[in-house]
Amino acid sequence: MKALKIVAVALGATLAALIVIPLLVLAGLFIWLKLTEEADDEALELEQEPA
């Protein structure tokens, strides 16, 4: 029974990792996209002013 419990915990942890890790990656990419999008907008504004 102890081995079965260990296998169940390991399987649960693996499934949780398979769900949580991609979500964290997507959240990080989303935040990076938002930050760089704002930076791009500011760069475009700066380029348009002198012209």
Report on this model:
This protein has 51 residues and is mainly α. The chain has a domain of 33 residues. The chain has one helix and no strands. The chain is rod-shaped. The mean pLDDT is 86.
Rounded Rg: 22 Å
* Net shape: rod-shaped
Q: What structural category arises from helix and sheet content?
A: mainly alpha
Estimate what percentage of residues fall within beta strands.
under 5%
Q: Note the gap between the termini.
A: 75 Å
Give unreliable regions as ranges.
none
The counted number of beta strands is 0
Order of helices and strands: H
Query: How can the largest sheet be summarized?
Result: none
Helix proportion range: over 70%
Indicate the mean pLDDT.
86
Separate helix tally: 1
Keywords:
1 helix; mainly alpha; 51 residues; rod-shaped; 0% strand
Topology diagram in text:
Layout: H1 2-48
Summarize the structure in short.
With 51 residues, this protein is mostly helical. Helix content is 92%, strand content 0%.
